[in-house]
Design a protein that fits this description.
Membrane topology: Multi-pass membrane protein
Number of domains: 1
Helix content: over 70%
Order of helices and strands: HHHHHHHHHH
Pfam families: LPG_synthase_TM
Number of strands: 0
Strand content: under 5%
Transmembrane segments: 45-66, 78-98, 132-151, 157-176, 183-200, 206-233
Keywords: Cell membrane, Membrane, Transmembrane, Transmembrane helix
Distance between the termini: 20 Å
Radius of gyration: 21 Å
Subcellular location: Cell membrane
């Protein structure tokens, strides 16, 4: 219930759901906030790693399509790679400077980043590494299969292959992770990618709205019920 409440919260304020989830776990399950929040941050990092792995697979499978897109729009394909390398370099330099800073706020940020890194490393020390990895793969596989099956809701997108839907899935995932639940952006991102496969803007965005709308409705209903029942169940537990 804390998880679903967090999803609802993220629709209003991006990433606020993680804080709410940790706070709820502390209130109703007596889990220390720091430990709960650290676990959640680790989950998000693992999700990011999985998404980046999927991006690499998609780039490998759809290199031809992407190169044609870059060529038709007169975009140098090396520019995105160069931009990514520059961002990585800047991030490295910023972290290096932050580690030498004596500012209390910067020290706290550095400590948080260090904790996140330690969280990732801690995965190698857990007792059930294999089940954790398999379950992570299962979650993302089910997420994509759901996305792929939904293409049958729009007639024009039924013939889009796995590789095309994989690119659209990635676009939608980034839209959700960079905004408050992908509101307004998710359908545009999905429609833009599907246009590479001859799907009209209207039909591509229609599929995006159906996928985003069904997920959001589910989260609102289950998350709303969670807000209601978590306190009721806890009050019964105390009595």
């Amino acid at each position: 219930m804390a998880l679903m409440m967090g999803y609802v919260s993220n629709l209003g304020i991006p990433r606020s759901g993680e804080v709410l989830r940790a706070g709820t776990a502390r209130t109703y399950a007596s889990i220390p906030f720091e430990k709960g929040f650290g676990t959640i941050i680790t989950e998000r990092i693992i999700d990011l790693i999985m998404l980046l792995l999927i991006v690499l697979v998609a780039l490998f499978l759809q290199t031809q399509v992407l190169l044609l897109y870059f060529e038709s729009n007169k975009i140098n394909p090396l520019l995105p790679l160069l931009a990514a390398l520059i961002l990585v370099f800047l991030a490295f330099m910023i972290l290096k400077i932050m580690r030498r800073s004596s500012n209390s706020v910067i020290k706290k940020i550095t400590s948080l980043i260090k904790g996140m890194v330690e969280g990732i490393i801690s995965i190698t020390k857990m007792q059930k590494k294999v089940p954790f990895i398999l379950h992570t793969l299962f979650i993302w596989a089910m997420y994509f299969i759901m996305f792929y099956i939904m293409k049958n809701t729009v007639v024009e997108t039924t013939n889009v292959g796995v590789q095309g839907m994989l690119l659209a899935f990635i676009a939608g995932a980034f839209a959700v992770s960079t905004t408050n639940g992908g509101i307004g952006v998710y359908p545009i991102a999905v429609g833009l990618v599907l246009s590479l496969y001859g799907i009209s803007k209207e039909n591509g965005e229609a599929l995006g709205w159906i996928i985003w709308g069904s997920q959001t409705l589910f989260n609102l209903v289950i998350g709303g019920l969670s807000f209601l029942f978590i306190s009721l169940l806890n009050s019964k537990k105390n009595t």
